[in-house]
Design goal:
It is a multi-pass membrane protein. The chain has 452 residues and is mainly α. 70% of the residues lie in helices and 0% in strands. Helix 1 runs antiparallel to helix 5 and helix 1 runs parallel beside helix 7. It is globular. The two termini are 29 Å apart.
Length: 452
């Protein structure tokens, strides 16, 4: 297939995904996805956002009544669309179109980031004299593959049709990764600041973003070097093979030169964008408690987990059962667990900052207070960027079957518990535990049994 035909094929798949979303968006009441706890959480529910906007229009604090816990900037962007109606069309059509556009832009940015990764691979291999190995390695077009996986992932479609604001959160996360891959410090900082402002957990992505800006996109997969060694070891002695291996390692170290200038620019832009966001938020809610009220109702809500309504995570059931005396201790344990894994993974994967960002996103999706399928949609899409490295992942069929099983059993168990009364909370919580176990497989690179 020629390059032109590949591009045409890619855009045909994109148009097909957009068409499917528009069809599903036009019949939202038949699907009733916006009420599903797997899709909408207290932080991503558009219904709660509409309530917060109504309170603001009534000259009240948007955080009154503990209904809305999102960003004032998101309220400014999507709030007017929740009250604007098009005659003869679904009520939330305009908001749905925003989410569709956000998904398409995210896919385009993922594709561009994938091309940057492939260009970095090729450039590094040419410097090392391994360009022939790169041509014969059958590296997949990871950018196109990852973009289509993100667009056609059922979790992405469900989050979009279910009116979850996770599409906006995913967009700014991908924007920060794209900016770092292109070494655009201002764009990377803008995406990181907005992503952290919207959901807090992307704050840990500052480490892979700094590594991306300093070292550039990921180094070539060590699989390629191992293939060269294996090919030449067969025709050489053991001493020559060890010498060849040391030579390849020395050559790979030469490429790792850290550039401080884009990192310094990145940190300066973070200060500028953070100040700008805080000023806008302060102006928006200056009559309703100011920034102190904002931090309490958003970040405080995320960290203290006061809302124990069921979701796809594992924290709601645990804190519903734990004694209040131990609540603060376990809050520190669960949130500290994320922080404890940051540095070991950064040391292990410093040569693969994009893959490190992917692992961090999986960790936050696993341990965040109010997860949804929109979080899984992001890391499953990014997984396509590493299709070559992870094509030998063990238990791939088991993982696929597990995701299908959880997706089907979760609404069934919720129905048995809430509506039919023939089950209990353990039925639904079991699907959440299974869902968490599936994600654990991505967190530790050693469990993937691949060379990265």
């Amino acid at each position: 297939m020629t390059k032109k035909k590949k591009v045409q094929s890619f855009w045909m798949w994109v148009i097909g995904s957009v068409t499917l979303r528009l069809i599903l968006v036009y019949f939202p009441r038949n699907l009733n996805l916006s009420s599903r706890p797997e899709v909408s959480t207290p932080l991503t529910s558009l219904r709660r956002l509409a309530e917060g906007y109504w309170l603001k229009r009534s000259s009240m604090s948007p955080y009154a009544g503990s209904m809305y816990h999102g960003s004032p900037l998101l309220l400014t962007l999507l709030g007017p669309l929740t009250v604007t109606r098009i005659e003869g069309q679904p009520d939330q059509l305009l908001c749905s179109l925003v989410f569709v556009i956000a998904d398409v832009i995210s896919a385009i940015l993922i594709r561009a980031a994938g091309k940057s990764l492939q260009a970095a691979y090729s450039s590094s291999l040419k410097v090392l004299g391994l360009h022939q190995l790169s041509e014969n390695s059958e590296v997949l077009p990871s950018g196109d593959f990852a973009a289509l996986v993100y667009l056609w992932n059922p979790f992405t479609i469900v989050a979009c049709v279910g009116l979850s604001t996770s599409a906006i959160e995913n967009l700014v996360v991908v924007l920060s990764l794209y900016g770092a891959c292109k070494r655009l410090a201002s764009l990377a900082a803008f995406g990181w600041v907005l992503a952290t402002h919207l959901s807090l957990y992307p704050a840990i992505l500052i480490i892979p973003l700094i590594l991306l800006l300093g070292y550039g996109p990921d180094a070539p997969p060590r699989k390629l070097f191992q293939q060269r060694i294996n090919l030449e070891v067969d025709n050489s002695s053991s001493s020559a093979s060890s010498h060849l291996e040391e030579e390849v390692k020395d050559q790979s170290r030469v490429l790792k030169v850290f550039a401080w200038r884009p990192v310094v620019h990145f940190l300066i832009w973070i200060l500028l964008w953070s100040s700008y966001v805080l000023v806008l938020c302060g102006i928006y809610i200056q009559k309703h408690g100011g920034l102190q009220e904002l931090f309490k109702r958003t970040y405080g809500f995320i960290l203290t987990i006061p809302d124990l309504s069921p979701n796809m995570g594992v924290l709601w059931y645990f804190f519903a059962e734990v004694f209040d005396f131990f609540r603060s201790f376990f809050l520190i344990v669960f949130h500290g667990n994320i922080l404890l894994m940051i540095m070991p993974l950064a040391l292990r994967l410093n040569h693969r900052p994009c893959f490190l960002a992917f692992v961090y996103i999986v960790i936050s999706s696993l341990l965040k207070s109010y997860p949804s399928v929109g979080d899984s949609a992001l890391y499953i899409g990014l997984l396509g960027l590493f299709s070559y490295e992870l094509k030998d992942i063990p238990f791939s069929f088991l993982l696929f079957a597990g995701y299908v099983g959880v997706s089907l059993l979760s609404p069934v168990m919720h129905n048995l518990w809430i509506w039919r009364g023939t089950g209990n909370a353990n039925f639904y919580y079991a699907t959440g535990i299974a869902y968490a176990l599936l994600q654990v497989h991505y967190v530790y690179p050693s469990s993937l049994n691949v060379q990265i």
